[in-house]
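Weekly structure sync, notes
Attendees: PL (lead), two postdocs, one rotation student
Agenda item 3: pending single-chain targets
PL asked that the sequence for the first pending target be pasted directly into the notes so everyone works from the same version. It is reproduced below exactly as submitted, 244 residues in total.
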Amino acid sequence: MEQDLVETDRKRKRNLSTDSTLQWSQWQLLDSILPTGGFAHSFGLEAAIQARFVSGPDDLKTFITHLLENTGSLLLPFVYSTTLNPTLENLQKLNRILDATLTNEVGRKASVSQGSSLMRVAASVFTEVPSLKSMRDVSIGSGIVSFHHAPVFGLICGLVGMDSGASQRTYMFMTMRDVISAATRLNLVGPLGAAVLQHQIATVAEAMSTKWMDRPVEDACQTAPLLGTIQGCHGYLFSRLFCS
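Predicted structure, written out during the meeting:
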């Protein structure tokens, strides 16, 4: 009896150790210090400000709400699919689909830029997953370098052992965090106001995540196409702080 209890305790400790290691990887993926270039992009917010679609905190909250729904409806299916099936074949297939789906050139370039940076960083950081580096090397060697951010993020989450629910919520959180950070640097809201806003929108982000979670790529769609149109105007701005 005592031996069984000792063995059970050992298994529990092993599982706890595995879960704890996974949590560190999750936190690192969320950490803004990870050099993936996310803070170089405003998700079209800078163009929206110059086009007078966003001029204050209330407009900003509406913009972020629509952005989160658009992210959930269009990109979460790609995160979900590669988390469930983190293979090179699936990644390449979804990259081609997403490349054809993103008709907004500014958004497409931003997705590839962030995805390529994330793939490079992950291959260097998560050395316990050698397949990340091999996938990147094979893709670059074959001339396929269009690493879109959403499928790459799902791939990494799947390979480090994160479940699909956590990976999708993490992606939504990062989108919310990055656009609010952009709003701070564009002087729409102060640092304290940004923290308050993020807390207020958290319930909206959870509702959007729940609404669009666990959907196949075939269901991917845009719910706010105007955001893509505005973001597409970013390249025409006379002066700009962000890349997109």
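Discussion points:
- The chain has eleven helices and no strands.
- Residues 2-30 form the longest helix (29 residues).
Action: rotation student to compare against the earlier draft before next sync.
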